[in-house]
Amino acid sequence: LLPAEAEALVRALEGTELRDAGGQGWLRQHEYVEKLNMHAILSASTGQEQLLTELLVTYAKVPVLIGELISVEIWKHKIFPVLCRLKDFKPRSTFPIYMVLQHEASIINLLETVFFYKEICESAEDSILDLIDYCHRKLTLLTARTASGETAVLVPPQELQKQAETMEFEISLKALTVLRYITDQVESLPLSALTRMLNTHNLPCLLVELVEHCPWSCWEAGKLKKFENGTWHVVPPEDQVKMTKLDGQVWLALLNLMLSPECQRKYHFDCFNKGQLLKLRAFLTDVLIDQLPNLLELQRFLSHLAITEPAPPKKDLVLEQVPVIWDHIFKKNAGKWEAIAKHQVKCVFSPTEEELKFQAQRWAQTYSLDMMEALAPSKPRCAVCGTEAAKRCSRCRNEWYCARACQVQHWQKHKVACNLMA
């Protein structure tokens, strides 16, 4: 995006009503978010994302994005179950459902990219409490699902089930990164935010659970697989002790919360919390500390904690703030869930052929092949031999090859798909 385009999109961001989720105006807002999200990723890859950060701060749009995030979450858990129970809910297209799911993923991805900056965290103001609550809910579900082996996510029509599960998992991992960036700013956070993280939600103990269960790592058929850059891949034996980015986010969040003097003063080091934190000592191996030397300080802190009885937290007069966005949406829509669902059946989930074609054309422009390739974490591979490819089918522009010989060899298999796409 050109600077003027980015500014226009940021200025156009505004909160939408819960009943309008999936509608035309709402989809237009999602389009703005998606374009800004892709712009943020591309800018971050070249170290030029400062402009978007300044625009979001200048026009005070971070609370708007957080509000949209909370709104989608409430829609998933309050409106969608009612929709599924309605007899006349037979969507002609799963497109609006997918868009609502994608909206949450796009917003959290955008926040993950920009929350690295202190200015963004500060510009969130009181809405930071809603974001902390949101991240806590996502990580709690992630930990519970990993411990039980069950998936507890929205159940859309069958064709979207797998996609919804994958999306929910990735959203939770991005929420982890956002939470870690928030803990980076412990010194400048409002007191109510610190109290909410440490005592209301007990985030240190939740992070210990993540270290124990490690949801982004699993054994399958005797092989260790880890989730990185959006995919699961088999880890060779020599790299099995290597720390992933997600492991690093958990440990950095723990460092920020446990070693800050203000956090140590506020946190309740009772018997349970102390016992949970001391579990970390088993994971603080020399190999791990070599990869993240700052963990040596955490190791010393835990050794000291094991042999001492921390003083009880100082009892101050506490006026605890409550999240405003969640409460506002709930109070505004309480008792209207079924009415909203019926409205959406009529106005959102029964689009005409013309509306579907129009929306498909708009999204085809937004999600262009060139843009998707620029966002891809890895370079394309040849469809025949698997080596890095620099050429692709000029007709459908979908299949990649390293040389013409591979393209000719693959033509018999590829021509049916090529004809359809062309």
UniProtKB/TrEMBL annotation:
InterPro entries: ZMYND10, Znf_MYND. One of its GO terms (cellular component) is centriolar satellite. SUPFAM superfamilies: HIT/MYND zinc finger-like (SSF144232). Residues 382-418 form the MYND-type domain. It is found in: Apical cell membrane; Cytoplasm, Cytoskeleton, Microtubule organizing center, Centrosome, Centriolar satellite; Dynein axonemal particle. One of its GO terms (molecular function) is zinc ion binding. Keywords: Cell membrane, Cytoplasm, Cytoskeleton, Membrane, Metal-binding, Zinc, Zinc-finger. Gene3D superfamilies: 6.10.140.2220. Signal peptide: none annotated. It holds the Pfam family zf-MYND. Plays a role in axonemal structure organization and motility. Involved in axonemal pre-assembly of inner and outer dynein arms (IDA and ODA, respectively) for proper axoneme building for cilia motility. May act by indirectly regulating transcription of dynein proteins. Belongs to the ZMYND10 family. This is Zinc finger MYND domain-containing protein 10. It comes from Turnix velox (Little buttonquail).
